[in-house]
Design brief:
globular, about 425 residues, alpha/beta, disordered C terminus, about 30% helix, six-stranded mixed β-sheet, three-stranded antiparallel β-sheet
Amino acid sequence: VSTQSTGVKEILENGRDALCNLQFGDKLMVLVDQLAENKVISGYNKMNLKGLKAQSDIIEELIKILKTKGWDNFKTARGILYEMFPDLKEAAVWDENHIDDLPVLTIKYSEEDGTASTSTEVEHDGNVPNPASAQEGIADTDGMFASRSKDEPSKSQPVTRSELSALPAYNMTKRRHKGICLIINNENYTKARSNKKEFKDRRGSTKDADSLKQIFGKLGFYVEYQKDVSKAKMDKLIDMMVKFQGLNTYSCFVAIFLSHGENECLNCVDGQDKKIDDIINSFKGDNCSALKGIPKWFIIQACRGKDFNYEVTTEHDAHGSEDGNDVERQSDKPISIPACADFYISYATAPGYFSFRNINEGSWFINDLCSVLETYAHREDVNTMMTRVNRNVALGRCVQSDFGYRRQMPCHVNMLTSALYLHRNRASEI
């Protein structure tokens, strides 16, 4: 794994916060005029930007335009911004001291000799096969997280009750970079079928992957995408990510697996199984020191068995206070925490059941997850948003069969010690 200089797109994403937080006032239109005068943007771009009313919309569109303009135009735009806002160079990450320090994990893998090396171009790989009994629209399975903590005497005392007041949120600016998101998309199972395994291709999975790349990119995460991964490559990818020297510069880690699955395993594209617990345990604090105290969110779109979840009729009533006053909080001082702390694991379905995927639109779970993130990530924490996803999938989706309506119930394991907000700050929007 190596640290490389980043491209314009990554720099703009990395400096998005500073730009969004600027108090432009009337200067925003002055900026647009100057960019046009210096031929950084076209007259057509200028017209479109001036047609927008909200500052946030103008900034988002401007960032989108600058991503396509190359290094020279980017540097010109940066110079104009520095002239208009002298403090920007110190506050943003667009100056030369920061441009080259975004750690980027890029992987090139040889199936022939099982070796991996870094490369400036990412090979898209993904693993996990489709169960033989899967029907059109059915996804995969996964296994619950099993903590295997080491029996070692504690060297610190628990936090006192007086220090556990209201629930805090993870600091998404704790480190230089916001977050890294690993997406592994297993769609083509030709290799598994050549190995006498009856796995169907996961049609529609690319739609899920594209939606996830877009939403996490908008949230300011660096996205590492791998497609159609064998068991050997999966092992190597996990090992390289755990040992990635730049991992300690990210404030949040997200890993997403789109795959066939069953019996607490992901089915890789070569027909071999990878235990989900083994993947998650690799990132525990005693195995991956770079992520100690950092929120780790695993999202697993895979079947977890061969049973169908049929509907039942019931009265539904939800109770509970909204202020959360009886929830306790960690103090801000350094403390000793369990090795399995700060994990949040989202499964598309409950243990033992199928999950569903539309061959054109993608999976139910990922569709609703991306929709909820798009709508609520600027103001709600992950656990609240996943409850919305549960409700949308469980109550809003079903498929009819001869035996009744088949439904799906997502399942989450929450080992977070603070609230996880994915937005940059409470006032910003994605």
